[in-house]
Amino acid sequence: MKLVSVNCGLPREVDWHGTSVSTSIYKTPVAGRIALRRLNLDGDRQADLTVHGGKDKAVYCYPVEHYDYWKAALSRSELSMGAFGENFTVEGLEESKLLIGERFSIGSAELVVTQPRMPCFKLGIRFGSDRIIRDFLRSGRTGFYLAVVREGEVGAGDEVVRLNQPSDSVSVSEITQLYVAKRFAQDDLETVRRTLTIEALPGSWKEYFEQKLQRLGA
Question: Using CA atoms, how far apart are residues 186 and 193, in angstroms rounded to an integer?
Answer without folding.
Answer: 11
